[in-house]
Amino acid sequence: MLSRISGLVLCAYAASGFASVDNVGTYNLILKNDLSTSSDIEGRIMIGGDINGASTDVGSRIPADPVVDAVTVVGDINAPSLKALNGNVVYGGNANPANIDVQDHDAALIKEDQLLLKTRFDAIYQSVIDDSDYYQTLAANGTFNTSDMNKKLFESSSSDDLLVFNISGNDLQSGGLEFGFTPSVPMIINVSGSGTLNINAKAQGNFDKSTVSPLVLWNFYDYTGLNFNGDGWNGSVLAPYADITSYTGSLDGGIAALSYTGGVEVHNKLFTYEPPQDEQKPVSAPSAAVLLFGGVLLVMRKRRKHAAV
């Protein structure tokens, strides 16, 4: 998971053994470095480093047909147990097949050329960075009301098909988050700040995981660390320079970051906005945000109509 969040069809990679992902291509997790987790990840994952830590299940919320690459790892699989409930497991480094359970009888454990995997991943992660850079330039058409520290409100009267909010990381260190309206269109929330952010705010009220999480993308564009300490988190997270940790609640949305270490489930609540089109140009790699946050995969990247600052 759209301009820079628009999409295109992935190369089939058929000659080199990659499964075709045309019209599927969504990732629940894209990490430049390592994944260390003891809990389940419901969607597909793309890992530039290694998979470490305890046992984990992947892919419970992706379809069994067509078969896609549920797990793609450029490096090693060191987890004592990795279970792919649907789809292939593709790796470029080292792995012990005895520790990997590919449950779908049509899927497989596939050893791939590591350089080819890294080239593919690097193109995707550059799009993660480009997406984050682009979103922080969008003009805000909503406001964030912090007059009541226990009930901070996102507010907007805009009729646009995309809402943009600019807030500070300090706003997420305590209190509750709600919308002062009924969310019905996708939203980008740009979060300013740097260094490591401890997030203690609780998403509550009409900020629920079933209806709001797929509409929200949080862009932590400068942070180097994010610690989710509150009662879970709703919405997808774009944090290309941050190491993320979470041990409470659940994370409901796609995540793009340097690394993730945690003990909570990552739910496949994907950001599925398809933006308006006014210009098309071919590109050589898919938009990482579409791969992460969902949406229809198209052959051309589309540039968003919304004006930048």
Please provide a written account of the structure:
The chain is mainly beta and 309 residues long. It has one domain (1-304). It is 9% helix and 33% strand. It has 2 helices and 26 strands. The protein has helices at residues 114-135, 288-293, and strands spanning 29-31, 35-37, 45-47, 51-52, 56-58, 69-73, 82-84, 88-91, 100-102, 109-111, 143-145, 152-155, 163-168, 176-179, 187-192, 195-199, 202-203, 216-219, 223-228, 233-234, 236-246, 251-252, 255-262, 266-267, 280-281, 301-302. Strands 1, 2, 3, 4, 6, 8, 10, 13, 15, 16, 18, 19, 21 and 23 form a 14-stranded parallel beta sheet that branches. It has a 4-stranded mixed beta sheet with strand order 11-12-14-17, with no helix packed on it. Strand 11 (143-145) and strand 12 (152-155) form a beta hairpin. The longest helix has 22 residues, at 114-135. The two termini are 22 Å apart. Mean pLDDT is 82; it is low at 1-25, 275-285 and 295-309.
Q: Output the number of helix runs.
A: 2
Rg result: 18 Å
Mean pLDDT: 82
Give the low-confidence spans.
Answer: 1-25, 275-285, 295-309
Number of domains as seen in the coordinates: 1
Let me know the number of strands: 26
Span from first to last CA?
Answer: 22 Å
Q: What pattern of helices and strands is seen along the backbone?
A: EEEEEEEEEEHEEEEEEEEEEEEEEEHE
State which percent range the strand residues make up.
Answer: 25-35%
Largest sheet: 14 strands, parallel
State the secondary-structure class. Answer: mainly beta
What would the principal axes of the Cα set say about the shape?
elongated
Indicate the percent of residues in helices.
Answer: under 10%
Instruction: Please give the oligomerization state of what you see.
Output: single chain
